[in-house]
Prior knowledge:
The protein is of the alpha+beta class. The protein contains four helices and five strands. The chain has a three-stranded antiparallel sheet, with helices on one face. A hairpin with a 6-residue loop joins strand 3 and strand 4 (105-109). Helix 1 crosses helix 3 (127-154), helix 2 runs antiparallel to helix 3 and helix 3 (127-154) packs across helix 4.
Amino acid sequence: MSAxxxxxxxxxxxxxxVGIQARxxxxxxCGACRAxxxxxxxxxxxxxxxxxxxxxxxxINPDGSQTIAEVPYARSETHMLELMDHVxxxxxxxxxxxQGPGSRKSFVRISGRTGEKLDLTNVTISSExxxxxxxxxxxxxxxxxxxxxxxxxxxxxxxxxKFCSSKTDFCDDAIHTKHDEx
Length: 182
């Protein structure tokens, strides 16, 4: 009778390990999602607010008019598409941090954008972390590019929570969590 109990124990241990791995993946994708939105937000904020772009149809209507409008370039679909092409390369500027055993891992910038000093206490910097974060970012961009662009073009508040929690469920508990690291 001990063999079936032993087999059950092995199955329980394996299920626990699979659950831990799934949580790590959730942490990775949540961190990549939050870093992606942070990088895009920073890029949008640093565009000259006076810069505009013409959007609309360049076709001439039967009455001889055109429906063209000028919109701010920073949050235009054109600018967002340009940013999406290379935003995941910035994942090399992130490191992994864990507050203790059993805690969720998160990702923080390891280099300042404007030369400011950053606190790198409890931050692990490795090429493996960079590769995994970049891969997760590229997967998110590939799968959800239209959603993130739509949020930036049409909505300017709480994009991180709206995209990473509501739209994608990568950070399913992030709405209830304080966001200090990004």
